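User: Hey, quick favor. My workstation is busy. Could you predict this chain's structure for me?
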Amino acid sequence: MLEGKAVIGETDMLQAMQDDALQLAAKALDFFDVTEATEIARVVKQEFDRMYGGGWQCIVGTNFGSFVTHSSGSFIHFSVGSLAILLFRGSAAPEIDEFSSLNGVKV
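Assistant: No problem, here it is.
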């Protein structure tokens, strides 16, 4: 288990969902070593699918970047020690952003 309190970076989840995410991550960390990031992500994702319906995605690691489109009210990014956890429910309709003006140029 990682010692330390979870620190929420960004979220738009209701407090109850946030609490579930933090509790599930803590339980996964009790069972798996921090080097087993894929297993931690699997547990959190599958439990959120069970509790809140399908479509959840979970990324766990110590060094990653992300740019995702998510459904409103279903995003949280938090860390416990050096381990970061990103949990969100995907959205079918991507939002238009400032990069749309690049006309297909890869950034």
